Amino acid sequence: MTPEPREALLTALAIDREGADLTPPDRAMLDYVVKLTLTPGDIGEADVDALRAHGFDDRGIHDICAITAYYAFVNRMADGLGVELEPDRSDTLARGPGFDGSGGGQPDGDA
Question: What is the pLDDT of residues 37-52, one digit of tens each?
Answer without folding.
Answer: 999 999 999 999 999 9
